[in-house]
Design a protein that fits this description.
By secondary structure, this protein is an all-alpha fold. It has one domain. The protein is globular, with a radius of gyration of 12 Å. The mean pLDDT is 84.
């Protein structure tokens, strides 16, 4: 599922499947790794990466994981204009 479509569903409060959540997490991890490769000092990307690590991710419920992804999306959007 495309990221924008997921974010639109999440904004409307629609239930999103676990597969879609995992796919979006993988997409964000890839984007973060590309950002860090270009800019070693990327504090927003570093925080987003920290949220997606197993320490936080594995202890979260699926609803909490949706919220983590929403936060990661925000962090990446804030980093984008830099």
């Amino acid at each position: 599922m495309q990221r924008r479509k997921f974010e639109a569903l999440f904004a409307r409060g629609t239930k999103v499947s676990e597969r879609e959540i995992i796919a979006l997490r993988n997409e964000y991890l890839l984007r973060i790794s590309k950002i860090v490769a270009k800019d070693a000092f990327a504090p927003f990307a570093a925080k987003a990466d920290e949220l997606l690590k197993a320490r936080y991710w594995s202890n979260a419920t699926w609803r909490e994981r949706e919220k983590i992804l929403d936060t990661v999306s925000w962090l990446l959007r804030v980093h984008a204009p830099r």
